[in-house]
């Protein structure tokens, strides 16, 4: 089956371009939040594990948003995937290190790092899609079984 025409299980939308668009958005949001929490201008920002959102006092937000308009939505918005995406990013870095590409010195982030993160997110999305497909199949079987038993 042509990948461009593959539909997501349980709905009538095509995997491409919808999934690719969602991955791109997720990657952009991750980079925005990660920059606030780990970047050079991150003084005063924190992460609320319970609410899964960036925290900071009003003056910190006001100063940061002067030059980072893209971050405004995260002032009051949760980002529930941040910790999981950090794990993916860390695994990719470990994988790169184990391949001998960056053992001695830390390199500055590059577009290659962005590509690796993008690929890691795509890989995770494929895993999630496969799990959803299997869950849908199992649920369908359970519903069918319960109708006749």
The largest beta-sheet arranges its strands as: 1-2
Share in helix: 55-70%
Shape: globular
Number of helices: 4
Distance from N terminus to C terminus (CA atoms, Å) equals 36 Å
Main beta-sheet annotation: 2 strands, antiparallel
Spell out the helices and strands N to C.
Answer: HEEHHH
Low-confidence stretches: none
What is Rg?
A: 20 Å
Kindly report the average pLDDT value: 79
Please give the domain count.
1
Structural class: mainly alpha
Q: Got a strand count?
A: 2
Strand content: under 5%
Written overview of the protein:
By secondary structure, the protein is mostly helical. It has one domain. It has four helices and two strands. The protein has helices spanning 15-38, 58-67, 82-98, 111-148; strands at 46-48, 53-55. It has a two-stranded antiparallel sheet with strand order 1-2. A hairpin with a 4-residue loop joins strand 1 and strand 2. It is globular and about 60 Å long.
